[in-house]
Every structure is written in C-alpha cells, then in structure tokens.
C-alpha cells in the first residue's frame, strides 16, 4: 500500500520520530514521509512510534492510499532530491 505520514511532535521527539520513519518511508518534506509499505511493516512502524510519542501532545496522521495510480503529485517550488535529503 502507499501511505503518506505527517507528524506534529514535541521538539524533544522530532529527531527520534524522523529517524524512525526514515527506516520505513521516504522523507519528502519536513514532517512528511511517503512511500510503499506493507500492512505488517506499517503496524510495526506505528507501534515503534507510539513508544516515542507523548499521546497527550503529539499527533501522527497516516493517509492510506488504496489506489496509488490515482495520485497526482504536484510540487510547487523546489522539490527535494534524494541527494539533498540523504547525502
């Protein structure tokens, strides 16, 4: 399945959440990840994120795309390249 994950977490936890999501998905923008993932890996990822986050303050949104062929992605401004994000 294709997912888009966004998060809003406390400053102390931002790096940990970002690092965890990088293990599963592609970082596309600050606080936004996307990519193909199996249901099992998504469940594992979310379980690990729940251990990091403070449920009283933090939020993580997961958008599951049932048919990724119907997504039209438009980038306005500068699109981040793989090299900019990871190298």
From TrEMBL:
Pfam families: CRISPR_Cas2. One of its GO terms (molecular function) is metal ion binding. Its cofactor is Mg(2+). It comes from the Bacteria. Its EC number is 3.1.-.-. GO terms for biological process: defense response to virus; maintenance of CRISPR repeat elements. Mg(2+) binds at residue 8. It is an enzyme of class 3 (hydrolase). The keyword Transmembrane does not apply. Keywords: Antiviral defense, Endonuclease, Hydrolase, Magnesium, Metal-binding, Nuclease. Belongs to the CRISPR-associated endoribonuclease Cas2 protein family. Homodimer, forms a heterotetramer with a Cas1 homodimer. CRISPR (clustered regularly interspaced short palindromic repeat), is an adaptive immune system that provides protection against mobile genetic elements (viruses, transposable elements and conjugative plasmids). CRISPR clusters contain sequences complementary to antecedent mobile elements and target invading nucleic acids. CRISPR clusters are transcribed and processed into CRISPR RNA (crRNA). Functions as a ssRNA-specific endoribonuclease. Involved in the integration of spacer DNA into the CRISPR cassette. This is CRISPR-associated endoribonuclease Cas2. It comes from Aneurinibacillus danicus. The gene is cas2.
